Amino acid sequence: MKQSYVYIITNKNNTVLYTGVTSDLVKRMYQHKSKTFKGFAAKYNCEKLVYFEAFDSIEMAIGREKQIKKYKRFKKINLIEKENSGWNDLSDGWLFYFD
């Protein structure tokens, strides 16, 4: 069964939060880091993965994404800091072999 993910990325100063959904988190992070995934995240240099959740279906992930997108900033920060208090890039060390 293929998993789907909801994720939060930020810029190097942790000032902008972007919430997204994908069925391939490694590939999506490559797209964000290489700026091939155009839009809000690229415009604001969001490429640091600070939070993600895995789901058994894309529908469940989309539902969770919609829920998180409605959160106020402080609630998103609490969500991130509960799992990643240092705001580390959770994709550090991932190997990216796409092009």
From TrEMBL:
PROSITE patterns associated with the record: GIY_YIG (PS50164)
Start and end residues of each GIY-YIG domain: 2-79
InterPro entries reported for this sequence: GIY-YIG_endonuc, GIY-YIG_endonuc_sf, UPF0213_domain
Pfam family, any one: GIY-YIG
Domain of life the protein comes from: Bacteria
Family: Belongs to the UPF0213 family.
Name of this chain's protein: GIY-YIG nuclease family protein
Protein source organism: Seonamhaeicola maritimus
